[in-house]
């Protein structure tokens, strides 16, 4: 089955649960055992993926990349740099935890790259959370924490003079963690069949949740509005699925092969090798949590919850909520929900 190619500016996001049966094991496909060969395959696939996105867009369309400080978006930025394609890199973080934006700002050293840091304080995180709740109709933590950067991006795009959906391409590095088990450790010895089977099952399980339409229909449209049809998740495509499911565990996780020193991550090894050959090599070996955490959004929501709990009736009678554990804050909020029936 070939990759779905949607005409610009129709919605380009590929919901692979509609074209791939993730209940069928792909263990027998995982024939690439060497990390370097896997890196070359991933880089070729990424170049083709971004090339096809740009080819379908108007010639003068400006690329906007949701930029983190890790390898996923770093590799996307590196391919854009290879193509001499100017782009705006936008990083959403919080004022209390700006490290993600500071690290991502290194992208501005590339010719044609402009970096924008959207730093949100607690009040802004709370306001965007309320907007996300209203637009999505649910309060699931990870969904709301994913929605906040998209709402901040929408606000940024709306404020740009002369920018509109017909001259804009939005790119994100989302999807690589599913294919390559980002953030995970190898579930066993890398060359054993049982490890390959376990890796394959984990990838397919993640794909069922991540590559569908999610908990809410039209998730992107509810959050990005008129900008949603321009959004491309770089690693969420049929071609990337076909490439990623060829990787054996030994091509996905770092072992004792020589790499730059310094407590380096073992996950997404082949993608890190690929990125190390690009103009954005400084992003190749940087450890990174999911955006919801690395941006400080989870921490900001924790702080906002504590402030809310501290303002409840009689909250400070016996203990100071600002000095309590997160578990006690959760219990306070739960009791308030019970009181409200």
Automatic annotation (TrEMBL):
The Asparagine synthetase domain covers which part of the protein? 60-197
Signal peptide as annotated in the record: none
MF terms from GO for this chain are:
asparagine synthase (glutamine-hydrolyzing) activity
GO terms under biological process = asparagine biosynthetic process
Q: Which SUPFAM superfamilies match?
A: Adenine nucleotide alpha hydrolases-like (SSF52402)
A Pfam family assignment: Asn_synthase
Record's protein name: Asparagine synthase
